[in-house]
Every structure is written in C-alpha cells, then in structure tokens.
C-alpha cells in the first residue's frame, strides 16, 4: 500500500528529521503564549488601571510586543541561544536567513565538554525547524517585557519606554535566557528553570521594581485611588493569560512528549489552588472575596509552578499552589504595608509580589520537589533530584538559590544602568500636567466616550479639539456627564 503524501519524508518540505506532531504542537504552543500578551495582557492592563490610563497601558504592552519581535530576530535570539561567547552570553547574529530558519533546531547551539574532552551536556536537536524555536522563545521574551511594564504603568514617559524595551531585552533578558536555557553556566551546572520562573517571572519582577524606583511614583491622587475601569474585561484578559499558560509550560519540553501534558495539568492545578487560597485569605482577613485578588492569586499560582511544571508530581503542584496563594498574599497585604521601603517604591500592579516573590518561591520549591524520574526524562544533567528525594538533592536546592541570586543581582544592576543612561536624554517620568490628564495628553486619545473618574469636564484644563463642522459648538464652563459636542438641530 502506498504511503499518503502527507506522511512521506522525501518531499522537499519534509526532511527526514521533521516530526510533524512536534512541529505542529510547538507552533500551537507559541501561538498560545503569544495570545497571553496580545491580546491577553493588553486587555488586562487596559482594564485594571484607572480609566485615564487605559490607552497608555494598553499601548505600552502593544508596543513592547512588536518591538521585541524585531529586536529578537535581528540579534536577540542568537544572543540568548546562539554559540557561546561568555558563560552568560552568546554571540549575537540575525535569525533571518532561510538556511538558518528551515534547518533543524539546536538547543543549545554549543556542546559543553569536561576538561578531559568528554561531553558533559550535548547539543539537543528537537524534531522541528529553527523558525519554530525562534518564534516560541520570542513570545517568552515579549511577555517578560510586558509583565515588567506592569510596575511602571500610569507615569513612565512613553518615549523612555520605547527606548527601554530594546535595551532591556538585549542587555538583561538575553543574559538570563542564555545562562539558564541557551547553554550558559547555570544550564550546564544543572539549575532547573523548566519554563521561566527565573528567566521570566523573577527577572520581570525584580527589573520592574527597580524601574519603578528610578522612574518615580504616580501622582498622589492616583496612588490613593486607582480603581479598575472595567472589571469584567479585566477577567477576559486574565482568562487569556491563564489558558495561554498551557502553551507556556506545555511547549517547554520542545516536543509533544509525555512531559507536555503533565506540565499543562500541573500548571492548571497550581493556578486553581492558588486562586482559592488567595480568595480564602481575602475573606478571612477583609471579610469579602475580591475579584482582583482572585486574579492575583491565579497569577502567583502560574508563576510559582512554572520553574518546575514538568518535573514535579501533581500533588506537588497543589503544594506549590497553596504556598503561592499565601506567601505572596502575605508579602503584598501585610509585609508591604509595614515596610517603609516597599511603600516608597510605586509598583503599580504589584509585579514584585505576583511575579518576583512567586517566581523565586517556585524555583526554590523545585529544588525541593523535583522528582528524579521526571527529571531524567527531559533534563540534560543526569541524576537530578529535589532535596526531598535524598541523594544529591540538597545540592540542587543550593544551585537554585545561587541562580536566583545571580538573576536578582544582574537585573538590578543592568536595569539601573539602562534607565540612568536613558535619563541622560529622555525624562523617565511624564510631566505633572500629563499625569493629571492621562491618555488625552499623552496620546490624544481616550479609551471611552464617557467622561469618568467622578470628575467634571473642564475644557480650560484639557483643551478642546475643534471640528470642521459649523454645527458643533465648544462646550462652555463645566459640564456634568459625558464629554461630547452640542449639535444644533
């Protein structure tokens, strides 16, 4: 019986090494991760902030998604996953050529040898082309950048943000990605960061907190009262974020293998458990459940399980969810209010607590709960196990601590240098006038036709954009209700 054309391996577009199932899953996973940012976080950010910052917050995420992609294919990908240059950095080069992109993926691109010449960590070759890997990891870089933006919403100069995005990607994100994933010193040392607890969440949380410090706070009125302008739409963005995480952790094994569905199941278990624990604590402490609190609990559960999603058992995912729903809750609701330093830094969406604290917690728990058999399926370093499984597990926990300290230190220093350099040319914070007005002053656009925030419209303060139509007249004085025009019929 003849073989159907779709399964033949001698077609020009189907080389012998290509596994169509792996290739299809990797592109699907990449799309799911991309949807977390665009439109997921774009919608969530636009909805969770005060009405006057809806457009600006959405635009910061939208711009980052596009800018990261271009920088990624021009130089970023091969700094993060290319041939080794330094223990924490690879040689940068474009990922644009046909020969490079349709060839078989290589992760990492450098084989690591012992001093005696024996192979320590081989170069892995997934059964799909390099283009799939380049795009998959672009979506990771993009969401990291957008998560970071959550710390500086409502006051960072949009021009400073536009300059910050490519610089942070190249000099900060790529270092963590190469060190832990691309064949750097932490990868070969055996540190586990399954899908980005350190590379993404700890990095975004620490850099976001650092950026919030240097950019400065929002207006006092915004800090005191910053209600979400659309809670239901916020939940739609949060839902895209949660469901997209199946691609986030499910695509990390670089194959549609047995680890992928386990990681997806663990991801959802941790998120659900964390949400329930966070909500329970809200009810116990504040007397009523909070929708925003539930979303924050969901995020901490997702961030916490990410560094170990494919190497821990399902019961461990419940443990991770319980701890990620309580420890970040305590750091945000109790510790933050008692710390003068934490209160001084205006972290708009509490990215430090929901991502840095949760990501760090997940990395450390992975050092305790990583199951030996699951580790042996996908990890390049043999005989890896968590401390709870005896043997050399205690060493893994120590490695997880060292890796976290490296990521924290690098992100603080690099983010500070980048922002201080930008500040020489562009103010990091908007002017007080722009901060008073919001989107209309920064973009000349507003999210809704309705005038809100409980204010009366003041044309002398906000200006009037006239019309060519003689039927439209400028509103006079202070007008209650919607901002609009008067039409003489």
UniProtKB/TrEMBL annotation:
Listed Gene3D superfamilies: Ammonium transporter AmtB like domains
Chief location: membrane
One Pfam assignment: Ammonium_transp
Cell compartments where the protein resides: Cell membrane
Membrane-spanning intervals of the chain: 24-46, 58-80, 134-153, 165-186, 198-216, 228-248, 260-279, 291-309, 315-335, 356-381, 401-426
Domain of life: Eukaryota
Gene Ontology terms describing biological process: ammonium transmembrane transport
Domain Ammonium transporter AmtB-like span(s) in chain numbering: 24-448
Record keywords: Ammonia transport, Membrane, Transmembrane, Transmembrane helix, Transport
Family per similarity comment: Belongs to the ammonia transporter channel (TC 1.A.11.2) family.
Name under which the protein is recorded: Ammonium transporter
